[in-house]
Amino acid sequence: MTIRLKMFIMLTMIAALTVVTLVVLYIGIKREERLITSNALSQDVLEHSLLLSGGLYRYFMKAYDYMAVPHSLSAAEGDNGRTPTHLQSIEENNSLILDHLERGIREEIAHLEGAEKIEEESELRLLQEIRVAYSESVDDIRQALRLYNAGDQKQALQFLQNTTEVQFKEQLRGLLHTLVEGERREVAEIDAMLITSGERLTILVIATSLFTLALSIFIVGIMMRAITQPVQKLMQGTLAISAGDLSYRIAHDGTETMTGEFSELAKCFNKMAADLMSQRDALLITQSSLERKNTELSIEISERIQAEDKARQHQAQLAHVLRLSTVSEIATSIAHEINNPLSVIINYTRGCERRLVAAGDIDKSALKDVLEQIGAQAERAAKIVRRIRNFSRGVESERVLTNINHIIHDVTLIADFEARQHNIMLRSALSSATLPVVVDRIQINQVLWNLIINAIEAIAGSNSTRREIEISQSRIDEHYAEIAVRDTGPGLSEEDLQRIFDAFFTTKPEGMGMGLAISRSIIESHGGHLWATHNQGPNQGGGLTFRIKLPLAQGAQEGIPHAS
Ligand code: ADP
Questions:
Q1: Coil, strand or helix: which one is 473?
Q2: Average pLDDT over residues 267-294
Q3: pLDDT winner (highest mean) among 91-100, 361-370, 473-482
């Protein structure tokens, strides 16, 4: 049964009880009203009877007065000062009054006859008796008047006195006595009834109210029980769920308490609990997989840290190699520059020595020693230079067929760490096209590394908001490819830009000014070219772009394997 239906039944029952109570009270009040009305009617009858008695008495007395005048006198002239005319007028007057009184009495009797509201049999019987008694009395008086009018005054008076008066008095007294007694008894009875009825009414009101109240409490109690019990069960379930017991279920089938909407609510609750449980299970699975991933991630991070450590080691090795290479390059150029004059010195010294020996006359031995010394020292210098050149030759450059993509990839892998240290984004726009070159990968790596480190240092030393380095590659034509390193640093003045490739030019306190000079010589030794330009345009972010132009490997096809 639904709650709505239960509530409807409950309210209907309470309303029905109220209606029954009101009906009972109404009936009780109506009954009291009828008693009061009956009592009032009885009193009405009594009043009318008394009125009639008075009227009849007056009628009787007037008839007596009328008949007291001898009838013979009324017809002839009297001797006691009364004239016949005078008597006649008294007689007529009396006759009129008698008629009037009689009519009044008959009207009253008729009025009593019309008292239809009186319903009780005893009252009706009494009323009948009254009417008969009054009618008989009126008829007796009328009989006496007929006798008098027939001229028999004596008999008329006798009739009136003996029959009517006595009879009337006795009858009237008896009737009135009966009436008064009856009424008194009746009033007493009614009063008693009223008291009993009032008590009954009070008892009825109290009993009905108590019964209605008890029944209402009973009905409301049942309804409350039907509502509170399932609510309590639902509350228990909610508390269990909030305490983490997602397996808690509310029994709803075949139970008395869980009916209608509560049964539906319990089903919904159970479904919610089941959903929550499956969601929690899914969450637990996700959590464990997250934990696993987390472990994997921390392993990956530690591997990455190791890789970065390795990269740093590589970087250090690279710097070492760069230094070695720098020494080697310098040595090569020194060897080249010094070797020639040294050769000349040696040649001249030898010639001089030969000529001096041929000329004679000179302390040849002393001069010879000196010249020998010069020659020996020069030889020694040449030997040192040769040794240095031999050393530089020892770091033979090894050129292999490779792809520009791979070179950029290798360098940015290491440089990215350095860039991130300075909050700089290093981007490499690798081309899908293969650009094969035959180069010494270590040297080209050194050049790129040098350019990127310069760019990082330039941005790091500036307040530039855009902190980006972009490395790109492109094919210039069928013979050349280009690598560009663009930065968003502060750039340089035109004057400084012209000098950056000079050996020992530097704007850094700790700088050597050799990096760009060596880089350029490396690129040129590869048949390429290295130069720098200002970044132009509003979106270029200032800074410089260094461009490396390298010859493409001739006849090399895309996808040619390269040395790694
Ligand atoms: P070093 O770095 O030791 O100074 P380099 O030959 O590598 O020597 O550089 C020479 C100079 O060129 C630097 O001192 C610097 O003033 C300038 N330079 C190089 N690269 C940049 C750059 N990306 N932006 C601004 N100036 C640069």
A1: strand
A2: 89
A3: 473-482
- Contact status, residue 418 vs residue 453, Cβ threshold 8 Å: yes
Radius of gyration over alpha carbons of the chain, in Å? 75
Dist. CA 249–CA 273, nearest whole Å: 7
In whole angstroms, give the CA distance from residue 310 to residue 413.
11
**Cβ 185 under 6 angstroms from ligand 1:** no
Indicate the top mutation candidate among 506, 518, 519, 520 to test ligand 1's pocket, ranked by most ligand atoms within 8 A of CB. Answer: 506
Q: Residues 418, 420, 425, 428: what is their CA dihedral angle, to the nearest 10 degrees?
A: 50
- Residue 476 pLDDT exceeds 90: yes
Specify whether the CB–CB gap between 70 and 105 falls below 8 A: no
Q: Is the pLDDT of residue 332 over 70?
A: no
What is the 458 CA–ligand 1 centroid distance (Å)?
A: 8
What are 253's two structure tokens? 């089938």
* Cα(436)–Cα(401) distance, integer angstroms: 7
Q: CB of 264 within 8 A of CB of 281?
A: no
Nearest to 179 by CA among 53, 32, 35, 33: 53
Please write the tens of the pLDDT for every residue from 408-443: 998 998 899 889 999 999 999 887 788 999 998 888
Of all protein residues, the one whose alpha carbon is nearest to atom 19 of ligand 1 is 454
What is the C-alpha to C-alpha distance for residues 126 and 547, in angstroms, rounded to an integer?
148
Output the residue whose Cα is nearest ligand 1's atom 23: 455
Q: Kindly give the distance from the C-alpha atom of residue 218 to the centroid of ligand 1, in angstroms, as a whole number.
A: 101
For residue 426, what are the β-bridge partners? 469
Report the separation in Å between the CA atom of 317 and the middle of ligand 1, taken as the mean of its atom positions.
22
Judging by beta carbons within 10 Å of its beta carbon (0-12, 13-18, 19+), is residue 110 exposed, middle or buried? Answer: exposed
CA of 524 to the centre of ligand 1 (A): 19
Number of the ligand 1 atom closest to the C-alpha atom of 511: 3
Residue 41 has pLDDT above 60, yes or no: no
User: Which H, E and C letters describe 124-175, residue by residue?
Assistant: HHHHHHHHHHHHHHHHHHHHHHHHHHCCCHHHHHHHHHHHHHHHHHHHHHHH
> Residue 212: exposed, middle, or buried by beta-carbon count in 10 A (0-12, 13-18, 19+)?
middle
DSSP state of 403: E
